[in-house]
Write a structure and sequence with these properties.
Layout (H helix, E strand, L loop, with lengths): L1 E7 L2 E10 L7 H12 L2 E2 L2 E2 L16 E6 L5 E6 L1 H7 L11 E2 L1 H17 L3 E8 L5 E11 L8 E9 L16 E2 L2
Antiparallel strand pairs: 1-2, 2-8, 3-4, 5-6, 5-10, 7-11, 8-9, 9-10
């Protein structure tokens, strides 16, 4: 488990991260996303981007994102679902992972995406955050590699299930955002 404490815009934020086998996904949306990734045609073990669509996964719209893998090794959000925007309090579309705040969170997400690119397979990450108000958020993110045509990992498909302190799903505009992109 990776654990860090950072000073966020409203006080200290604790981050914890765990990696799980995607086959053990604790939420039906994540299990369906993993099954869809496994089922579609692949080039050198990686699904073609055009083979993966939201229709393959029930209850997924708004809770997915597409991340471009840039030649520089950086990651840019091509699409950031509307439910993610509402739950996290910002729209990361067009932003690099290095622009996320706090910096420790940006580093964590970048490393997790790098692990998926290196492994060339989906990885299920659990991230736990605890803000200054002692409110805990826990989310599971299945991040899966995609190729545009030649088997090289060009994009990442992420599907998220975010849970509150008592395990309830918190995709709601009323959620207090913990993270904001750096301006």
């Amino acid at each position: 488990m990776a654990r860090t404490v950072s000073q966020g815009p409203r006080g200290p934020i604790q981050l914890e991260s765990l990696e799980h086998d995607p086959a053990t996904a604790p939420h039906p949306r994540l299990a369906a996303a993993y099954a869809a990734w496994e089922a579609v045609p692949k080039v050198e073990g990686i699904p073609l981007r055009r083979s993966v669509s939201p229709e393959l996964v029930p209850d997924v719209l708004g809770q997915v994102g597409i991340v471009d893998v840039l030649p520089t090794g950086e990651f840019r959000y091509r699409m950031f679902g509307s439910a993610l925007v509402a739950a996290l309090g910002y729209d990361a579309t067009g932003r690099l992972t290095s622009e996320l705040d706090p910096p420790e969170y940006a580093t964590l997400i970048t490393r997790q995406y790098q692990a998926v690119v290196s492994a060339r397979r989906p990885i299920l990450h659990e991230v736990r955050t605890r803000g200054e108000n002692a409110r805990t958020l826990r989310y599971f993110r299945l991040t899966a590699p995609l190729t545009l045509n030649d088997g090289r990992v060009d994009q990442l498909w992420m599907t998220v299930a975010m849970l509150g302190s008592f395990g309830e799903e918190v995709f709601s505009p009323q959620v207090t955002p913990l993270f904001r992109p750096r301006d």
